[in-house]
Amino acid sequence: MMLYLASRSPRRRELLDQIGVPYKCLDVEIDEHWNGQERAADYVARLAREKAEVGKASLVSQNSHPVLAADTAVVLDDVILGKATTEAEALSMLRQLSGRCHQVYTGVALAAEQTMVEVCLSRVCFRPTTEEERDIYVQTGEPFGKAGGYAIQGRGAIFIERLEGSYSGVMGLPLFETAELLNTAGILLP
Length: 190
Prior knowledge:
The protein contains six helices and seven strands.
């Protein structure tokens, strides 16, 4: 059975490749606005569900192809930090995270006969960082487009003192929850 991935993220593709799941990519657009009130777990679950369902609706033969989607949010003090788009945003996020622990929520959804959603919660602790370290990191360009302004699978890993939870979930696609959804839908993993 062909699986579709409703994502442009190279990290999500890399993670599906890691567990040997064949897939094709779909490009979907949804409104990812956070209203400032919605709980982070509800927010990532909603976005993952919407992406999967929009992807499913875009297929010519909607009944035969499941669509997988995910969304990740970095949360500090009950505030979703979003994705860094400018140097100032990235530096601000990294400054806030320095020497503190935060939560990473990743929702994963599979639109098949019905839409199923799981949410993975991880706790990430940053070591204290200096302004110079943060500036050098931002100059690499890696923080841009990343939730919280860092990439655990990249150079941002040097800031992470401790991780409690799912490395793949922080990366953007929790593989345990993904495998559970795929198995429930009858997509057997190799």
